[in-house]
Amino acid sequence: MEPGNHTHIPEFILLGLSEEAELQTLLFGLFLSMYLVTFTGNLLIILAITTDSHLHTPMYFFLSNLSFADICFTSTTVPKMLMNIQMQKKVITYEDCITQIFFFLLFAGLDNFLLTVMAYDRFVAICHPMHYMVMMNPRFCGLLLLASWVLSFVQSLLNSLLVLRLSFCTELKISHFFCEFNQVIHLACSDTFLNDLVVYLVSATLGVIPLTGILFSYIKIVSSILKMSSVGGKCKAFSTCGSHLSVVSLFYGTAIGVNLSSAAIENSRSTAVASVMYSVATPMLNPFIYSLRNKDIKQALRKLFQWKIIL
Predict the structure, then answer these.
(1) In the chain, what are the domain boundaries?
(2) How far apart, in Å, do the first and last CA atoms of the chain sit?
(3) In this structure, is the dihedral angle defined by the CA atoms of residues 118, 119, 124 and 125, taken in order, positive or negative?
(4) Which of 37, 68, 162, 241 has the highest count of CB atoms within 10 angstroms of its CB?
(5) 20 falls in which pLDDT band (50, 70, 90)?
(6) For 151-188, how does the pLDDT look when each residue is reduced to its tens digit (9 = 90+)?
(7) pLDDT-derived band at 265, boundaries 50, 70, 90
């Protein structure tokens, strides 16, 4: 195999979470169940928000888009993993690997930006309630969503194109259940300095800035809530932010934990197991967090099920 000639690269080998044969059936059942729960739960959130006119507000508009992003995020990796287990093979072609990297980075970035936009929405709702509908008008909400898509697309396309410039050696084994971006880069025979530089810059720009924006929003939110004289008003304000804050903590907590563990632990298989938390478990838990803590979503889901029963 000649470095630099991608036409001679037939496939990557995905080693998965475990190479033990007796665990494959268990992994297949576990990930199939998690994927079905993720897909169904997020789809129900989208349908409930779409069919209930009372939920046609900026907060639920962004929530429905977050649910859509979560479905796509999980669908990028899990179906391929399930197919490999079922067919008892571990290969993924070079083209499919690059495609998977592109969509994984796209929807991970979209999740990141949507959570930031949702934090801003809660900030306006609580800190500037009298101007909420003026500030969060449909046009502005659409622009925020468009900006989230564009920024996610640009960073995903940039990183994916930079992978295409790399040449690879014969050892193409990835200790993961999908084409994890950093591991693919480290398999390259050619110089990866530019790739590493872009990764650090993108991570700093699109990771630190949104997280800082979320923290700033919640500092202002907590400050405004503490100034409220009514206990009922405080409880209502906290309840409207509780679900989003839980999802933010879960998403960023698991993602940061995986990055820290990958830096501290050389065992990439351990990192792959840890990454299940933010890439599979978090999208699965989001619908439960929003439905269990939100009366409006619960009511919309009841109406949705009643409508289906009548039909």
Answers:
(1) 7-310
(2) 60
(3) positive
(4) 241
(5) confident
(6) 999 999 999 999 998 888 776 888 888 998 888 998 88
(7) low
- pLDDT of 154 reads 94
Q: Closest by alpha carbon to 71, among 98, 51, 45? A: 45
Category of 5 on φ-ψ map: left (φ > 0), alpha (ψ -120 to 50) or beta = beta
> Residue 215: what pLDDT?
92
Which ranges of 52-129 does DSSP label H, i.e. alpha helix?
Answer: 58-75, 78-87, 94-127
How far is CA 113 from each of CA 62, 118, 219, 309, rounded to the nearest angstrom?
A: 10, 9, 19, 37
Model confidence at 23, pLDDT cuts 50, 70, 90, reads confident
Helix (H) or strand (E) holding 93: strand 91-93
Cα separation of 114 and 63, whole Å?
A: 8
Which run of H or of E encompasses 173? strand 173-174
CA-based torsion, 181, 94, 280, 30: positive or negative: negative
Please tell me the pTM assigned to this model.
0.90
CATH architecture of the domain formed by 7-310: Up-down Bundle (1.20)
Residue with tokens 């991608």: 6
Integer-rounded Cα Rg, in Å, for the chain is: 21
Q: How far is CA 5 from CA 123, 127, 161, 221, in A?
A: 51, 57, 15, 54
Residues near 107 by beta carbon (within 8 Å), at least 6 away in sequence? 69, 70, 72, 73, 76, 152
